[in-house]
Amino acid sequence: MEIFLLDLGQPLEGIGASDRVRLAVSTALQMEEINVDGFWVGEHHGEAAFSAPEVMISSIASATSRLRVGSGGVLISIHSVYATAERFRLLSALFPNRIEIGVARGKPPDNLISQFGDFSNETYEQRVRGLRTALLESRSGPQPNDCQAPPIWLLGMGSRSASLAGELGVNYCHGLFLKGAEPLTAAYETYTRALPVGCNGCFGVAMSVAMSGEQPARIFAGTYARVNLTIDEDQVIENAMCLASGVVLSRTVFVSAAASAKAYASIASHLPGVAATLGCFKSSAVTCK
């Protein structure tokens, strides 16, 4: 099973926005040293530090040599589909076999939309379909087109996104850490049913991790004393049921919920230990029967 860290660029106590950006790059270097497979960065507008994932990806990929780097995810509803495809193809040419594109629903906060306009003249589904065509099917479209296109991941929390990802034959990562997320087994079943016959796809799960004492009160009830990390009790139960339910996980993405830079660094350094603690997963690509 692959292990990734997703950094959403959330504010950390005592760290300015510019230092927060640089902290992500240094953390990615640490991830490579301890053999974590990859590092995703979010896209958020307003308080969070990461507003341009492609820029972050380029910087992190330049600073590392092996780590796979991607977006978790691009808010495609506010971007040009064609320009997004061009940027990720260019990144793939610069860093072969190391770039991924994760796509998410969502928009900037309403106050920013009211100031700068509503960008969405197409539905999310239309934009995702267009992005897949531009990246995977068009030989005369976005350049450079003589390199391998980056894998596409749809990020979601329910059947709509899981079904769309399966229908398009792209990978799906279920945001179990998000409030209101559907059960993992339901998302898995929806995804595999929607996959075209013979199509391979990867199914992943995103789980939040926090240091003891740093977590929001509502979550992180299950404690892993060996590494002083806590994970949402509901998420632990969900994942303990994976093997028995036949869910095949190709990837676990850990999402830091730390409030301070010290806790954030501790979470990053202990990811392999957390993954070992939750080592009840089967690992492979999903193949529709």
Strand content: 15-25%
Tell me the Rg in angstroms: 18 Å
State the strand order across the main sheet: 1-2-3-5-6-7-9-12
Look at the helices and sheets and give the structural class.
alpha/beta
Note poorly predicted spans. Answer: 111-117, 215-229, 280-289
* Number of DSSP-assigned strands: 13
Kindly report the average pLDDT value.
79
Return the string of H and E elements.
EHEHEEHEHHEHEHEEEEHHEHHE
Helix tally?
A: 11
- End-to-end Cα distance: 21 Å
Largest sheet: 8 strands, parallel, barrel
Using the alpha-carbon principal axes, give the shape: globular
> What percentage of residues falls in helices of 4 or more residues?
25-40%
Describe this structure in words.
This protein is an alpha/beta fold and 289 residues long. 39% of the residues lie in helices and 20% in strands. The longest helix is centred in the N-terminal third of the chain and has 17 residues, at 17-33. α1 (17-33) packs across α2 (53-63) and α6 runs parallel beside α7. The model is unreliable at 111-117, 215-229 and 280-289 (pLDDT under 50). The strands form two sheets. An eight-stranded parallel barrel has the order 1-2-3-5-6-7-9-12, surrounded by seven helices.
